[in-house]
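Dear support,

I submitted the protein below through the web form. The confirmation email said the job was done, but the results page showed an empty box. After a refresh the structure appeared. I'm attaching both so you can tell me whether what I see now is the final result or a partial one.
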Amino acid sequence: MARNSAAAAPVRPPLTRERIVAAALALIDRDGLGAFSVRGLGASLGCEPMSVYHYFPAKAHLQDALVDDALASIPTDPWDADPFDRLRALARSYRALARRHPKLYPLIAAHRLDTPAGMRFTEQALRLVHAAIPNDRLAAQYFRVLGYYLTGAALDETAGDANGPLAAGRFEGPEWRERAFELGLDSLLDAMRAASPAIGIPATEPLPAPKPVIRPKR
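What the results page shows now:
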């Protein structure tokens, strides 16, 4: 009986949303956002670009899924823990996410976070800030300040001097940046503790009335 000398074709796993997102993340981690394309993604998956578009009608939908997948990896802590401890853990987890995927992070930083996981992450952070400072106006302000700090720190570490020639300087490098991040986080959390309504700010402090707009006569 003659033996078939042709090698059996490799069996590819079925194409799924999860497999597409994982392959896209691997390409971005390797080559960066600027080099990423759906055509290249299809080649890495062994399929035509139109097969990817069957699951993601536009590149923006795939970007949404990448942001969702990244933010969903941030763990949540028990709600009975101290809100300041949870805020610290959340901040560290967010920074760790940026450091795991430095080439993807610019997309996360610029994203509106209106995806399901993005909204859950935003709502979780806002609830934690409000649990630490049960004052609507101050909680909204410190939520914004926390976002500024985490986004700026993550962008600096993933796309700034951390990857440049100063990385080996006296006040650079991983250990120095770790201490700098914790110092900034300590300063922010200490300011939030000082602003707590426990020192006399009412929890329902009203917002100041808007000033009337005076228009010049024609």
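Response: this is the final, complete result; the empty box was a page-load delay. Residues 17-57 form a domain with the Arc Repressor Mutant, subunit A fold (CATH 1.10.10.60).
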